[in-house]
Amino acid sequence: MNRSSFTLKALTAALILASTTGMVLAKGYKGDYKGEACPPPQMLKTGWYLGAQVGYDSYRVRNTFADADTALNPVFAANGWVGGLMLGYGMMMNDWFYLGGEIFANGSNADENLSYTEAGSSSTLGFEANGSYGLGILPGVKMTDSTLTYVRLGWNWANLKSTAASSGVSVSKSNTSNGFVFGVGMETLIVDNWSVRGEFDHTWYGDYNFGGSSVNPSDNQYMLGLLYHFG
């Protein structure tokens, strides 16, 4: 089992657990029993929150060479762990619709090297992601008093580096690429002001030129987060 498959299964399990926990909490509240008041159910918090997240980066990188004599346009994956912090604000607009805004900063160790041979010459292409930051809008729907599903619409920036080596000569270029991100997630309150969430995002980053080629990166990201709500 590869790391990407394991991480996706772990995220799926976390989402199922979060949903089940929220629904059990909601169904477990029966109000008064024989004249004795029961404690109210835990409810999603609104207002400011601070959180930490950890997950898995899976970049897909295409190098398209401008040389008409070069038919090879290699595509490879750069995978690694990612983690960071987020700060946001969210509120219920009515009984069911949630709207939030968030900023984040992550570090990543995703990297990969690809070796290939063309016209009898061996070459190596490399790619690494050093970190990313961004902002997003999070519209969502309340599933229960303690569970929320949402989508992420935002813009991300990533610090990326490309390398190439051929015939004993190596070159590199660092670039800050940016692009649109779309994601889906689920959050559930676990106790008091603490909640957990699972999220999947895809970011389409802009191209940049390197070593006679155009580098086109995109990123699939699987994240688990722990949030503290100040409200």
Question: What is the structure about, briefly put?
Answer:
By secondary structure, the protein is mainly beta. The chain has one helix spanning 3-27; strands at 47-65, 75-92, 97-108, 111-118, 121-144, 147-166, 169-191, 194-205, 208-210, 213-229.
Write up what this structure looks like:
- The protein is mostly beta strands and 231 residues long.
- The chain contains 1 helix and 10 strands, in the order H-E-E-E-E-E-E-E-E-E-E.
- Strands 1-2-3-5-6-7-8-10 form an 8-stranded antiparallel beta barrel.
- Strand 6 and strand 7 form a beta hairpin.
- The radius of gyration is 22 Å and the shape is elongated.
SSE inventory with pairings:
Layout: H1 3-27, E1 47-65, E2 75-92, E3 97-108, E4 111-118, E5 121-144, E6 147-166, E7 169-191, E8 194-205, E9 208-210, E10 213-229
Antiparallel strand pairs: 1-2, 1-10, 2-3, 3-5, 4-5, 5-6, 6-7, 7-8, 8-10, 9-10
Report the mean per-residue pLDDT as an integer. Answer: 84
Order of helices and strands: HEEEEEEEEEE
Fraction of helical residues? 10-25%
Main beta-sheet strand count, sense and barrel state: 8 strands, antiparallel, barrel
Features:
231 residues; mainly beta; 10 strands; elongated
